[in-house]
Amino acid sequence: MATSSPGAESKLRFDDPEEVIEGTVESQLKRKYGRGIYVGNVRRSKDGTLFIQLGNTVPKDVSDCRDHDRVLKFIEFDDIYTLKAESLAKGYLIELPDRDELYDGFRSSRRDLARRLDRNMAQTIYSKLIEFTPVENQLGAIKEILRTVREHAPLPVDTIYEIRGPSNEEQTSRYLRLLEDTDFIQIDDDTLRSDSNLDVHDELEVGTREFSEIVLGQVVNRAFSTLRDELNLTLLAHYPKYANSYYFSALQRGQPNLKLDVESAHDNLEMLHEESVHEIKVQQKLDDLAKVGVLETEGEFYKSNPEIYGDLAAQPV
Q: Residue 186 domain-assigned?
């Protein structure tokens, strides 16, 4: 039988691992932390210690804003905290964390979800991202390197450093490494040549819009996380974040024709990213995304591009 210690209620005792599986321990945890807490995976170490993974469910309104169908979904955030149940002479003992520790774990899990969603979105709409001038400008150095390779390879690697200047040496080195890792260029004996992912687009003229959208889009597709996290190209995550302020609800509902208004998209953005953004800005970003076909509009409502919805729904989160 699972019981909480008196006083601070910082400990939980139970007699048998079956109490974890059968839900007795989970019931005690719900009383302490709230109804959203649930027990996920449980594993036992060689010394008999149990490690109990906790998750948290959060209710989310995913109603269609045109039909007012009042639908509530419970979003699961797995692995927000792992409890350690030590084996005693009789039964098990858990030192319970305070609420702040669980909340920190929940926020971390939510951030991870948002980052995975943004990655999936960027890899789905990469060719459309390049249509936004600020995004294309932020990829200007990569475009410059690829253009030089296409027009002048084989050439010494030092030539790229000379073109970009000594003040950009570290950044240039990172870009070259990224393009080599993703098979756009190859470097042998300090000589730079094109590689398969650049060669496959030989028919495209370097200075054209089509080259930017296809080739730079492929770079984003193959290296989004590196570009965003290591090279700090933050604009790459900017538009996917706003796109997900719509698609998050549509995917949770499994309904590509879901109609959302700006207020609902704004709520999704605040929930996923913990950002306070004015609704006017959200509307402007959604309208921008609609202009390039990431979203569609119907009066005051936004709905999905069916092809993009299908691609996103097929990806694991």
A: yes
